[in-house]
Every structure is written in structure tokens, then in C-alpha cells.
Design a protein that fits this description.
The chain is an all-alpha fold and about 300 residues long. It has one domain. About 75% of the residues lie in helices and about 0% in strands. The chain contains 15 helices and no strands. Helix 1 crosses helix 14 and helix 6 crosses helix 8.
Length: about 300
């Protein structure tokens, strides 16, 4: 690639986008052990607003700086809040649904957000071809082998599926506003989480001692899995379309399994390797001929 400067320059923006979104997937993948631990001690509403509150505290100094310089744009506010509503509903429904189903079922159904992204991209942007269909089939098959879901469809599966629709909406909204300042966008994206505070306080099982027990995990989720990961997502999606971006973000369960092996001693299986390879194939099929997005950002 380096032997052909024109080819390298054409691929360079894609490589930037791929790298940023892979880092996002790593951080999201590392969050699963922390999420599972947290929702086993506190309810999903408390988990949602606490994660958001830590995130906002981390971003607040930069927000104040930009505000003092009058550099916050209306697009960043509107786009961030819209993405935030989808994000918060997605993690709330995912956390709620996971209580009634297995972690593998939840991971598989959440991964189906790529189907909803593809349906929108194909119908609205007319972005469909045998290549995109093949990459979609490979990705869904990969998620299936990776997570090995079991059982029928119950309330847990339905809640997680609705959450997947909101995850898809978040990816599509970020795609529309990826030219904005990613840090300010992320700040406004997290703001809707505070609306879960009243729901949390009305819960009879709310306990300050329990919230303190999960605080280290919440701090990690807020500062790393939310702030850094979402800033990189907004930046990475500047260079790639929504379908290609969602394919790369399917690496989240792959990295989740890797972290589970490192931290929890879980072992890789042949079906896990097969699923990972199918997702990798799906990503390369989609990325190899994808149209490059024009970055109009001045940030």
C-alpha cells in the first residue's frame, strides 16, 4: 500500500475511521464484566444515571471552556441530545432485558442492530448491493456463532431487541452529526441519563451502600466506556458510512470474549473463532469497496 501513494492516500481516511471505531469496540467490549457486576447489585435506572453522571463530570471542564469561548454550536446540542435519547434508552432496555435472559442471548440480539442500520441505509440512502447483503449475512452468522444464543423469545429478548433498535438509531444519528466537535457532542449525548434519577429514587430497593459498592465499576464505565469510546465513535464515523461503521462495532462481543478470557479465565471455542472470522470477513467485504465520506468538519 505504501508503494502506491495515491492508493495509500485514498485508504488513509478509512484507516483512521477503522482504527477509531476498533478502539471504541475494545472499550465497549471491556465494559461487559463491569455492567454485569453493576446490574447484579443496583437496578438498571440507577446504573444508567450514575454512569451518565460520572461521564458528565469528566467532560464538564472542557464543556465550560468551550462555553466561555462561545464555541458550542446548535448542531452539537441537537445532535447530541437526539443521540443521547437513543443511547440511554438502548442501555436501559439492554440492562433491563439482560436480567430476564442469558448474556449470550443479549449479546446476539444487541448485535442485530446492524440489521436495522442496513434496512435504513438501503431504503433511505439506496445503499444496497450483493456485496452489502453478503457482508450483512456474514456478520449476523458471525454474531450467532460468537454468542451461541439459546431458548425461545421471552420478555428479556424482546426488551433487548427494542434496545437494539435504539442502538441502530444512535449509529444513524451520529452519522448525520459526525462533523461536529466529538467531545461536546458526547457531553450532550449523555445529558438525557439524568432523567433516570427520579425513577431510581422511587425504587424501594435503592441503597446508598450498594451504589458505593459499584462506584469503581461505574467510574470506569463513565470515563472510559462512555466518554473516550463515544468521542472516538463520533470521530471514526466521519470517515465511514453507517453500515460500515456498525460492522466494525460488531467487534465489541469479540473483545468482550477476549477480556472474559483474560479476566475471568474463560476459554475460546471453535465456534467463537468461526464467528470472529465471519465478522472479520463481513467487515472487509463491506469496507473494501465502500464510498469514502467527505469530511466537512472544521473541528
Amino acid at each position: 500500500m505504501h508503494g502506491d501513494p495515491k492508493r495509500y492516500n485514498a485508504w488513509r481516511p478509512r484507516l483512521i475511521g477503522i482504527s477509531a471505531l476498533l478502539m471504541t469496540s475494545i472499550m465497549w467490549g471491556s465494559s461487559f464484566p463491569a455492567i454485569k457486576f453493576t446490574v447484579s447489585i443496583i437496578d438498571e435506572a440507577t446504573y444508567t444515571w450514575m454512569r451518565g453522571a460520572i461521564s458528565l463530570l469528566g467532560l464538564f471542564p472542557y464543556f465550560v471552556h468551550q462555553l466561555s469561548k462561545n464555541k458550542i454550536k446548535k448542531r452539537e446540542i441537537l445532535g447530541g441530545l437526539a443521540a443521547g435519547v437513543s443511547f440511554i434508552l438502548g442501555i436501559w432496555l439492554q440492562g433491563w432485558g439482560t436480567k430476564f435472559t442469558t448474556a449470550s442471548n443479549s449479546a446476539f440480539i444487541t448485535g442485530l442492530f446492524i440489521v436495522f442500520v442496513h434496512i435504513y441505509d438501503a431504503s433511505v440512502n439506496k445503499n444496497y448491493s450483493p456485496r452489502t447483503v453478503a457482508s450483512l449475512i456474514a456478520a449476523v452468522a458471525g454474531i450467532y456463532f460468537l454468542t451461541k444464543p439459546s431458548g425461545g423469545v421471552g420478555i428479556g429478548e424482546m426488551l433487548v431487541l427494542i434496545g437494539a433498535v435504539f442502538w441502530a438509531a444512535q449509529v444513524l444519528i451520529v452519522d448525520k452529526f459526525s462533523d461536529t466537535n466529538p467531545i461536546i457532542f458526547t457531553f450532550y449525548e449523555v445529558i438525557p441519563s439524568v432523567f433516570f434519577i427520579p425513577i431510581s429514587l422511587m425504587n424501594k430497593n435503592f441503597s446508598i451502600s450498594n451504589t458505593l459498592n459499584v462506584l469503581p465499576a461505574i467510574i470506569y464505565l463513565g470515563l472510559v466506556s462512555t466518554n473516550i469510546a463515544f468521542i472516538l465513535q463520533v470521530y471514526g464515523q466521519r470517515w465511514l458510512g453507517p453500515f460500515e461503521s456498525s460492522l466494525i462495532m460488531l467487534f465489541e462481543p469479540i473483545f468482550a470474549a477476549i477480556f472474559a478470557a483474560i479476566l475471568l479465565g474463560e476459554r475460546f471455542t471453535l465456534t467463537w473463532l468461526l464467528g470472529s472470522m465471519l465478522i472479520l470477513i463481513g467487515m472487509f467485504v463491506a469496507i473494501s469497496r465502500a464510498k469514502l465520506k467527505i469530511n466537512k468538519s472544521s473541528n
